Amino acid sequence: MSQPSYTETAFKDFIGEQGRLQLQATTFLKQEFALLQQHGLSGCQSVLDIGCGKGELAAMVAMLTGNATVHAIDNNAAFIQGNAVTYRSVENLHFFPLAAADELPTTYDLMYAKFVFQHLADPAGILQQLKASLKESGRLVIIDVCDEWISMDPAIPPLQSLILKSIGVQQERSGNRLIGKQLVNLLKRAGYTNLRLDLVPITTEQIGIDAFFQLVFSYRANFSTNDVDLPALYHQAVEKVKVLDHFFCTTLICCVSGERPL
Length: 262
Ligand SMILES: C[S@@+](CC[C@H](N)C(=O)[O-])C[C@H]1O[C@@H](n2cnc3c(N)ncnc32)[C@H](O)[C@@H]1O
Fold this sequence. Notes:
Blueprint lengths: L13 H14 L1 H10 L7 E5 L5 H10 L3 E6 L2 H10 L6 E5 L10 E7 L8 H9 L2 E12 L5 E3 L3 H16 L6 H11 L3 E11 H4 L1 H13 L8 H13 L5 E12 L3
Parallel strand pairs: 1-2, 1-4, 2-3, 4-5
Antiparallel strand pairs: 5-8, 6-8, 7-8
Helix pairs in contact: 1-9, 6-10, 9-10
Bound molecules: S-adenosylmethionine (SAM).
């Protein structure tokens, strides 16, 4: 039976997945903040983080932009409750469960969604809806992945199988691990204008092989599915890489933004 792509039941060990999510969020926090700045954050008075997870980036945006009001929303009510406690001292930051989306102010200068669109069943429909929540000339920024942009040397067959099979598992749950390459066209079709695009490489040289595996691949071994033995593929890949003298792997993170036309 199909189940949503990012919920407690989608993972064998959701506590473990939350640890990985936090590691991912903290490892790249400064770069992600810099990306938001390049895509129009500076000078914004009202910002919405869509699918904020554990709230790290929303907190950084609130603290470093000072006088902007930052709202952060997520469909995981437990995340929202925890974030409200963790960041209670950040006065310009407010967390909302998706169920309370009606309480949000109607329009924002900038909205962003990081690693969320890969979990949406109807990204085109959501892009249309979000346009109505942007001020005129406000920007929507989307940061996400495309698994076709993962590249390695030498080839590790179990790792390649893990990547392909996890694309399939996420797709069965109405998610899309190839969304990154589709974002430019999705935004254009939804009527966003003045598009900006950055493709940011993440490599094993930059963060080390262990961290790369942890951040980019361990997630897939934790998918709650009995169809294929994803943990076995992950562990075979780790063992194969361990005995190599050299291993290089890279992926690209896509950051694309567009403006609500006047
Ligand atoms: C991979 S996590 C990314 C979290 C955070 N943006 C980050 O980068 O650390 C995806 C998040 O999107 C949330 N999410 C998924 N679908 C959503 C929806 N339709 N509306 C709001 N949040 C959603 C999940 O609960 C989860 O917290």
